[in-house]
């Protein structure tokens, strides 16, 4: 299987590396600066679950150069999505399916519009990873789960081919029958987790110690459940409870990637995540006032 990775950042380089380690052909489609860094420093994964060095990584800056791609692992930040559309169209026209692993949900419709519904799979990840000063991946969580699944019946075959690959790969992978439900559950979780940690500029521990603060996250979970239900996804009360228990089970110093980005003064996915939820809520006539308030609080930190 030939996997093209767009966005050789934390997730792209990590999962791209794991696919290559499992025997896939992997090509990284990168921009000039990242291409130069990879040429100079190479591409390594540093992980308690197994280090890996991608020897002679195949990189290109032109989608046209990627021959016979089967799947595109799309792992850019939400605000970089528009800049990838032309490349995605080229790769989809050359036969590839797009497997986006961004947080959020709005990108699914955007991608389907750009390359056609049949070409867009559903995907998401549970992992904590970042790039260090050499552009190598530092994977710091004990988990590295990749969920994927068909959004259209025509995608069964490509998902089965992914099953074959992922079963040999050093990652936890799950082929989901209802990937849209999983996308909504993650969207619910991340909207609350990234919202509260970024708004109060604290990891989860001190947030939990102040029940008034933790309550804000709990209410956002409820609001996102309602939004999911009104959007046709059967997120249940138990899913909300599981998400809350997930927040309670995290190490005290654990925090969201958005909060880590706030600490580093990087651009944040506020518009893609909380902003996207507000746009959907407006379209569906759902009230999500706590999400709205937290969106307002984190907005000043959105742009680097
Ligand atoms: N990191 C994590 O632990 C987790 C992240 N996520 C989600 O995954 C998504 C990706 O996050 P993450 O991997 O951390 O992000 P990173 O910022 O580490 O990586 C994104 C990469 O995309 C590249 N990029 C942007 N535009 C283009 C383009 N047009 N062509 C080629 N490359 C491009 C950037 O390259 P350049 O160097 O050129 O800017 C950058 O290296 C986000 O939606 C995030 O919320 C989900 C779970 C966990
Ligand atoms: C919650 C977590 C770490 C899970 O992957 C995440 O997606 C993020 O912080 O962006």
Automatic annotation (TrEMBL):
Keyword Oxidoreductase carried by entry: yes
Signal sequence, start to end: none
Keyword Oxidoreductase on entry: yes
Pathways per UniProt: Cofactor biosynthesis; (R)-pantothenate biosynthesis; (R)-pantoate from 3-methyl-2-oxobutanoate: step 2/2
Keywords of the record: NADP, Oxidoreductase, Pantothenate biosynthesis
EC number: 1.1.1.169
Pfam family, one: ApbA
Residue ranges constituting the Ketopantoate reductase N-terminal domain according to the UniProt record: 3-150
Enzyme class: oxidoreductase
Catalytic activity: (R)-pantoate + NADP(+) = 2-dehydropantoate + NADPH + H(+)
Role played: Catalyzes the NADPH-dependent reduction of ketopantoate into pantoic acid.
Similarity remark: Belongs to the ketopantoate reductase family.
This protein's name: 2-dehydropantoate 2-reductase
Species, as recorded: Tigheibacillus halophilus
């Amino acid at each position: 299987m030939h996997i093209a990775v767009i966005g050789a950042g934390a997730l792209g380089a990590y999962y791209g590396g794991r696919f290559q380690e499992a025997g896939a052909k992997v090509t990284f489609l990168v921009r000039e600066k990242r291409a130069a860094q990879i040429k100079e420093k190479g591409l390594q994964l540093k992980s308690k679950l197994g280090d890996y060095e991608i020897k002679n990584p195949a990189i290109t800056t032109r989608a046209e150069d990627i021959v016979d791609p089967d799947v595109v692992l799309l792992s850019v930040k939400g605000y970089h999505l528009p800049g990838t559309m032309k490349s995605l169209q080229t790769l989809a026209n050359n036969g590839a399916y797009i497997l986006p692993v961004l947080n959020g949900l709005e990108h699914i419709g955007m991608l389907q519009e750009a390359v056609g519904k049949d070409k867009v799979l559903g995907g998401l990840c549970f992992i904590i990873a970042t790039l260090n000063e050499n552009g190598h991946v530092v994977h710091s969580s004990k988990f590295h789960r990749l969920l994927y699944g068909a959004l259209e019946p025509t995608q069964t075959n490509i998902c089965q081919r992914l099953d074959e690959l992922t079963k040999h790969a050093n990652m936890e992978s799950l082929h989901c029958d209802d990937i849209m439900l999983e996308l909504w559950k993650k969207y619910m979780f991340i909207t609350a987790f990234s919202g509260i940690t970024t708004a109060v500029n604290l990891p989860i521990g001190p947030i939990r110690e102040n029940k008034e603060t933790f309550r804000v996250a709990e209410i956002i979970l409820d609001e996102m459940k309602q939004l999911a239900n009104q959007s046709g996804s059967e997120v249940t009360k138990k899913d909300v409870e599981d998400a809350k228990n997930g927040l309670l089970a995290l190490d005290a110093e654990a925090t969201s990637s958005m909060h880590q980005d706030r600490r580093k003064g990087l651009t944040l996915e506020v518009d893609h995540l909380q902003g996207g939820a507000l746009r959907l809520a407006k379209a569906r006539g759902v009230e999500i006032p706590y999400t709205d308030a937290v969106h307002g609080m984190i907005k000043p930190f959105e742009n680097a």
